[in-house]
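Predict the 3D structure for this chain.
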Amino acid sequence: MLDRNLVRGLVVALVAACATLGQPRAQADNATPAAPAWQDYLKRSTIERVQISPDGTRLAVAQRDGDSTVVTIRDAATLATLKRFETGDGGEVERLSWIDDKRILVAVNRVMKKYNVSFSDPTLAIITVDDFSRYVLPANFLATIDGDVEHLLVIQCSNYGEGGCVGAVHKVEIGHTNRMGEKLIDAPDREASLRADRHGHVRFAIGVDDKANSKLHAHKGNDTGWTLVNDSTQTGLHVWPLGVDSAGEFAFLESERESGPSVVERYDFGTGARTEVYRDAVSDVVTTIDAFDGETPLGAYYGPTAPRPVFWNTQHPDAQAIEQIVRAFPGRMIGVTSASRDRSKAIVLASGDRDPGSWYLFDRTTKKAKLIARARSWLPEAQLPKTREVVVQARDGKTLYGVLTLPPDGREKDLPMVVVPHGGPHGVYDSASFDSEAGLLASQGYAVLRVNYRGSGGYGKQFEQAGWRQWGRAMQDDVTDATKWAIGQGIADGKRVCLYGASYGGYAALMGGVREPGLYRCVAGYAAPYDLAKMYKWGSIRRSDLGLDYLEKVLGKDKADLASRSPAQNAAAIKVPVFIAHGRLDARVDVAHSRKMVKALKEAGVDVEFQEYMREGHGLNLDEDERDFYTRLLAFLAKHTTPQ
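Done. Predicted structure below.
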């Protein structure tokens, strides 16, 4: 049972006034913060990572300063800056963690200003915080080892053969990683991805072939060799490791099932036994809830559109304390990002539909949590749009889950609405977490509806595969049914609904115009594939056996069928205005898709606006292009959702 007084005490501590990083004091105690402008939703977080030192006295903070991310070392009690590490022009911190009380592990890459994208993997370095001397780690770094601050695990290629490198893991001395050191184990498969536990033992190897089949091997941590846990070519199911218990005797796995969501299993390294410990009725694991060591799963959040915590490793000594922290943040997702050596202090990251991320310092001795940083302090929670879960019954009876974001002024009826299908489309899902784009649109008075149509991830193998070869068919019907549900509920004004998306979402937007010419008032797409047959000739997906297999699996290859489900082949069916944008350097979905779509629309006499971005790829990375795109999109939506 939870100690209700402890939870109540935590809540009081969480709302108490305190100094925070990157956030000015309020002008007056009762001052109401101004509502943010839509451009504010596009601003990048200023606080990106916070880690506490093993002795609990200092914090390492990755924060933005101009065009770079810097690392500051701060006093954990006062937040005063003790040291500052510059990453250089365009530096980006991809990883930050303490090795011991004097050294941090930092991964830094550098973006090219012209494109605002990094084209190289991060450089890993161990930095001494007192003088910022550094040692650059080899590119084949695998893991650090708790309790052994002088050694690392690295992967060396032991031999080459057909299919690539066979990796071997070596334990090497920091500062001498060019020496092979002690060989611990060979990988079981070529190009396998290896995972080590916190004690320096390699425990899992995950391999995926060109047909998207997977193999999971486990290792006891001694000389007995690898044990095959799952081969999807035999079972038809995928299995992934979630984490290893601190004692190293067992692990938790997420295992697919033929129907319904995946399950969590306990895997015994000694016997190989797999025991089911939890299966949610609706959802796969959204994210695990870990112990203070950051490695051992205690439970997980379930339900992407309304995350709820479930604890299934309740015998762990940290379980009660972590559960108390989680319960103190109702409606938010909680994760412990780091903890002191004695586990008396921990950094807790909280996030929710109106919270892009807030870091707290939790003291287990005093049982209090103090706010130390907010990712985007200029977005006051009270002024942000709220998001709630919606449940829709599709026309064939299938249950669909989605999220509805409403304007911050409290209006809930007869609203102009933008329906936003997510990209991907398979394996991806929309969640109740803070979403910059949904917030931006809702801040302008729109209801924003996002539905996890069949084919989305998060709800099990069967639900995802129900979308295969259903582009423009049942997947599109799900978007239509969700739109009609919102109109039927009185949330949306049926005369002021537009459809917009990016990548697959843009495809779905244009297909919505094709399939439902009387339902939407306008449609818009960014970086979308509009001619399905051309996906076998244009773009990067076709350039690998894995990609070609994916296309055939989810689209099929019949040309007549693909044409019937391609907006570019059915442009004359669209009867509403269209806005299309695309990056000229898009490698994933070639800009030729949009050019062909625009040409077909113009030939059909459809009102179309087209914008190409010279230096953009599959997303918008340059600030000026992002602002320009949303300026155009908002103007387009406003023009066509104004009451007649």
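The first helix runs from residue 4 to 15.
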